């Protein structure tokens, strides 16, 4: 049985319409139809989503179905993963260790009334900086690591520092980013806002070159193109686990850095690029263009050289 036939069998055996699968996976009905008739092949990530949907919370059943579908996927695409438990996805942590996403906190004068615990309509998330990026990343990591302890926080606690640590945003709003960056070794620095540039941080690369966002005017109020920063390193507090930093000049840069490896359309291809370019996905960094189109940040395609502003890996 090939992959399209197996996907069709799973759905019909469960008595489900294509729309139910489409809604669960967040795609259109036509996409599900194309996967079942073989006109298109779902990504490895979508195959994992199928396994999770049909296996539910039963871990053994999930792993068995996932392996079966990935074998069929390998046959369909002519690829033969050396280890199906270590597929090249930046956000899958096979050791099952805890994952902590540490976010920046908005300044008090920028918080809404709902960030006040005394407010009857208190909403804890309203204090988060880079909230769009956090929601995108948290849901993605939880989906890929359904049996891991995944949490998001505004400040790291001592035990969090030994987890797979993900830091969102720069040092200006994220104290954990500020402190951890002092331990890490990478060639890009982020220059904080000052009197001349009061809105947003910018990056400095070796040689002193400045890498900044592009704005519609000198007041830096409308972003035309942001800059995203993605860094993956061993966690200096526990080298058996990872440290990931997603930053930007403005918020759309942070979101673009996250979407670079979560986007359903180009995320897998970007991961393939990183693995091919750097030899692994465990120790590298990128500065990338994040175009802003109609206020919406577009996901960078790393196969496009114009998307890559600066890149490095250990030993370079």
From TrEMBL:
Domain (HTH cro/C1-type) ranges: 7-62
Any one GO molecular-function label of the UniProt entry: DNA binding
UniProt cross-references to Gene3D superfamilies, sorted A to Z: lambda repressor-like DNA-binding domains
InterPro entries recorded: Cro/C1-type_HTH (IPR001387), Lambda_DNA-bd_dom_sf (IPR010982)
SUPFAM superfamilies: lambda repressor-like DNA-binding domains
Domain of life: Bacteria
Protein name: Transcriptional regulator, contains XRE-family HTH domain
